[in-house]
Prior knowledge:
Layout: H1 3-38, E1 49-56, H2 63-74, E2 78-87, E3 89-91, H3 92-106, E4 111-120, H4 122-127, E5 132-135, E6 140-142, H5 154-160, H6 184-209, H7 213-219, E7 224-226, H8 227-232, E8 238-239, H9 242-251, E9 260-262, H10 277-284, H11 294-297, E10 309-311
Parallel strand pairs: 1-2, 1-9, 2-4, 4-5, 4-6, 5-8
Antiparallel strand pairs: 3-10, 6-7
Helix pairs in contact: 2-3, 6-7
Amino acid sequence: xxxxxxxxxxxxxxxxxxxxIAAVFLLLAGCFAIYRFAFAEPTKSVxxxxxxxxxxxxxxxxxxxxxxxxxxxxxxxxxxxxxxxSSPGGTTYGGERIFKAIRAVAEKKPVVSDVRTLAASAGYMxxxxxxxxxxxxxxxxxxxxxxxxxxxxxxxxxxxxVSLQEIxxxxxxxxxxxxxxxxxxxxxxxxxxxMDSYSWFVDLVADRRKLPRENVLKLAxxxxxxxxxxxxxxxxxxxGGEKEIRSYxxxxxxxxDLPIVEWTAPPKRSPFSLFSLAGIAQMLGYDEFLPxxxxxxxxxxxxxxxxxxxxxxVGDH
Length: 317
């Protein structure tokens, strides 16, 4: 092979190396662009706008939501807040923290609670944090109350011939237990705790809705109400939708034609999940049909709520 051929081959190798490196950089840049587009937290508008936060599903202690509400409170661009609620409730503590976070926003700008399909129990607790509550004619709300539930597996263990022995420091430790019938002292302890939280809930509704406590007690028997019924008993203020929401903001000196900007939670995904079954299903909106979501669809997640619960379920009060 002559020197000219060797030189040509070397030049060809240099060109191939250059294009290989360029292709790698382009691939990395493409992946980064996809990550920014599909996974990065949306940039909130710097223009004046009305912020909207959606609260749906079971309510629990949600640190990310609390931080988001704090950012809205501190944002000079967000002139008001719409809290859209579609929830059967959840833990009383989770509802309490979100309630206080929304009231912190309301100290700086007007807040509208937008009751969608359902805002019951702790969902209604959160709704009362708004300066006004607007619901649909057939929205479901109410179910003011608190419940403490625990499983009882002793009959099953008896059938299996299994018993549990325990040694504890005092009679009330780890009571009530799913492994034996609770003594009356345990029931009294839990009942007192439930009634104390219930009393707190009733006082909160009476204060926020400007109703006599005795009136709230008549409504706080776990009953649920349609939007039309809730207006009649003053649990909500107005029937309607976006038109009524914008009219309220206008009454609070917030321009009714401001754009509504969704303040959403950042996706809990990595860029690598884009190429996984879960990632693709989530992007296409079919993640609800994945096999590992079946327990949640069947309501199994409700069995693992910690602490006292304020949640409405069909058939329960």
